Amino acid sequence: MHCLTALLSICIVFSQGIVEWLLKKTGPPAKEVKTVEEVEELKTESDVVVVGFFKDQESEGAQKFKEVAQGKNKYHFRSFFVAD
Q1: What is the pLDDT of residue 61?
Q2: What is the pLDDT of residue 46?
Q3: Quick one: pLDDT at residue 6?
Q4: H or E segment at 36?
Q5: Could you tell me which residues are beta bridge partners of residue 14?
Q6: What is the number of domains present in the chain?
Q7: Which of 12, 76, 80 lies closest to 44 in space, CA to CA?
Q8: Cα angle for residues 70, 75, 81 (degrees, 5° grid)
Q9: Rounded distance, CA 27 to CA 46, Å?
Q10: Pairing of the two strands 49-54 and 31-32
Q11: Could you tell me which residues are beta bridge partners of residue 81?
Q12: Which of 28, 11, 20 lies closest to 74, judged by CA?
């Protein structure tokens, strides 16, 4: 019975990882944050969170940031757009 419980625990953890990976691959590569409070909350989301600050979504820097974020599975990427 203990082996079955351990096996089920491993399966649950593994499936949660698959779900997180699928969400990252099917969603935007860098989710947008809109407030300073949201940026502060990111500190508890993961060990590593990469936040890019840009003037707009179409800027060259924002596009490059999205390209890099698309290929990275280990890290959480967030974008913050600041209007002039």
Answers
A1: 92
A2: 76
A3: 56
A4: helix 36-41
A5: none
A6: 1
A7: 76
A8: 70
A9: 18
A10: unpaired
A11: 54
A12: 20
Two structure tokens written together for 37: 């409070």
* pLDDT lower than 50: segments of the chain: none
17, amino acid identity = G
d(CA 26, CA 78): 15
* Range(s) of the domain holding residue 32: 2-81
Q: What is the DSSP letter of 42?
A: G
Q: What is the dihedral of CA 65, 25, 82, 41, to 10 degrees?
A: -120
Which pLDDT does position 82 carry in this prediction?
80
Q: What is the pLDDT of residue 3?
A: 61
Q: Rounded to whole angstroms, how far apart are CA atoms 31 and 44?
A: 16
Query: N- to C-terminal Cα distance for the chain?
Result: 62
Task: Look at residue 64 in the predicted model and tell me its pLDDT.
Answer: 92
Q: How far, rounded to the nearest angstrom, does the alpha carbon of residue 25 sit from its chain's CA centroid? A: 10
CATH number (domain holding residue 47): 3.40.30.10
Coil, strand or helix: which one is 10? helix
